């Protein structure tokens, strides 16, 4: 589990080169509305996979907020 968390954080923190794919206005609006409200690791990964070309600025902050909330919830569940 620790390895998964490490790789997710690493993947989200590395600047992304969008491999020829631009972020459309519609995609940007959609992921801006969702990024801070993802509840599971799968949701974070799937959203990042689908919208990684948009992972910049406020969107990256939203992903970070979701990751923080998931880690916080898991920390509490483990009794630490």
Describe this structure in words.
It contains four helices and no strands. The protein has one domain (2-77). Helices cover 66% and strands 0% of the residues. The radius of gyration is 13 Å and the shape is elongated.
The number of strands is 0
Q: Fraction of residues in helices?
A: 55-70%
| Principal-axis shape | elongated
- Please report the distance between the alpha carbons of the first and last residues: 16 Å
Q: What is the count of distinct domains?
A: 1
Rg, alpha carbons: 13 Å
Helix/strand-derived category reads mainly alpha
> Roughly what is the average pLDDT, rounded to an integer?
81
In the predicted model, the low-confidence regions spanning at least 5 consecutive residues are none
- The percentage of residues in β strands lies in under 5%
The largest sheet, given as strand count, sense and whether it forms a barrel, is: none
Order of helical and strand elements: HHHH
């Amino acid at each position: 589990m620790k390895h998964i968390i490490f790789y997710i954080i690493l993947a989200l923190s590395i600047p992304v080169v969008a491999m020829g794919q631009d972020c459309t206005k519609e995609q940007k609006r959609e992921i801006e509305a969702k990024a801070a409200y993802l509840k599971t690791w799968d949701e974070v990964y799937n959203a990042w996979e689908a919208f990684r070309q948009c992972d910049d600025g406020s969107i990256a902050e939203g992903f970070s907020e979701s990751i923080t909330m998931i880690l916080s919830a898991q920390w509490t569940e483990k009794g630490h």
